[in-house]
Design goal:
The chain is built from 10 helices and 10 strands. The protein is α/β, with parallel strands linked by helices.
């Protein structure tokens, strides 16, 4: 039986990444795949990228990797994004930027007779957002192929990142898995009346899958496990380097709450999901 650790959305958080790699090593897992968003937000993007390059067998591109690695023509109205872009790029050298630009969009393999497809956000776009509250139809589209996928087969199992929340379900005899976020775990459903301790959210996340790697024909055992690890948030934040939107970043790491919830709510409302009812 083969085991694979799948990590995603590190966002320059070195302490969280080291905690995850230490845990993977303790479990004796040799194969690690990364679903992207290695850089951006934290000040240790360079260190995280080099560590991932040395330890991960498969690395695919996230939306932040793409945004930071490429040049853009920013308008005056997009001054904020230019400042964000330039600040994140300041931590990376040209070799690292080139590496990020050339990362693949997705990866596919067979495991225990099932086609497993990995991508950052969706099989179509690197910026898509499909979460646990989305419609069955939106979730179903995650299994469909696109011009960006390696094969044109419907996937049996999809594993992705981007939304920063570990979740899974079964749809039409298929399995959807989100690996969560190593360095920026969040939760959008919050209510002071019902909330448990915030550490349930702020731990570093990754997922382990188990089965017969590379087995296409023979249907065998397949399982997955969500892992949530505490790490030293205070140490990660203790830096003399300038942090872009420092207060917002601290709030995300310590409270597990996205800095721009109003934008998230509008996005959900466009899909007829009312977050206020939670």
């Amino acid at each position: 039986m083969d085991r694979i650790a799948i990590i995603s959305d590190i966002h320059g958080n070195l302490e969280a990444l080291k905690a995850v790699f230490n845990d993977i090593e303790k479990r004796g897992i040799k194969r690690i795949f990364c679903l992207g968003d290695i850089v951006s937000k934290g000040v240790n993007s360079s260190e995280c990228l080099e560590l991932i390059r040395s330890k991960c067998e498969v690395i695919i591109k996230g939306n932040n990797d793409e945004f930071i690695a490429n040049e853009h023509n920013f308008t005056d109205e997009r001054k904020y994004y230019k400042e964000l872009h330039d600040w994140n790029r300041s931590f990376l050298n040209e070799d690292q930027l080139t590496y990020l630009r050339n990362l693949p969009f997705c990866y596919e393999f067979y495991m225990s007779g099932s086609l497993v497809r990995l991508f950052h956000a969706s099989p179509t776009l690197i910026y898509d957002f499909v979460g646990d509250l989305d419609s069955i139809e939106n979730k179903r589209k995650l299994f469909m192929p696109s011009e960006n996928t390696i094969s044109q087969e419907m996937a049996d199992i999809v594993i992705y990142g981007h939304i920063h929340i570990q979740c899974s379900d079964n749809l039409y005899n298929r399995i959807r898995i989100n690996a969560g976020s190593v360095g920026n775990a969040l939760d959008f459903i919050r209510n002071k009346k019902y909330d448990a301790n915030v550490r349930q959210t702020t731990r570093a996340n990754y997922v382990i899958i188990e089965g017969e790697y590379g087995e296409k024909e023979k249907v065998g055992s397949f399982s997955y496990q969500f892992v949530k690890l505490p790490y030293n948030i205070e140490k990660e934040l203790k830096t003399e380097k300038y942090i872009f939107e420092r207060d917002s970043y601290i709030h995300e790491l310590k409270e597990g709450q996205y800095r721009d919830l109003e934008r998230v709510k509008k996005s959900f409302q466009a899909r007829h999901i009312d977050m206020n009812k939670f």
